[in-house]
């Protein structure tokens, strides 16, 4: 499980075997089954999760019972309720397994410790955060400026395997459209 993490870090920073062994010692591995919660609204958020295997969704259910998917995460991606994680407050989102999942978990205390001790780890997380901000901005702008068809085709182009793995109802929710609209778009 840690080989995937080593490869992931290696895309942005160079760590010696000793440094990686030290870094990886701050992570814990967990397995979850399909439909299990990693994070549930109202509960403390103690970890950021690196996805080794599987697919997760971060979502919010409004007062009318409609689910809004904010983020998806598959292999080699990170996911958490970042507001709650960084502020050490209770979750406002649910993070649920769409498939069986294997993750590596990093507590905020361990993240802060690693960042203060190893400049390259701080650099890694800064680069990952920047990429996350960019992705979030793109997603928000797509809802403001693109039609549902354009959002759907962009998703297919950027993440073809993700679209294949998601049930149609979840794909529709992620795109902000009804299941019926998604059926018309994919026809």
From TrEMBL:
Residues 30-116 form the Cyclic nucleotide-binding domain. CDD domains: CAP_ED. Gene3D superfamilies: Jelly Rolls. It holds the Pfam family cNMP_binding. This is CRP-like cAMP-binding protein.
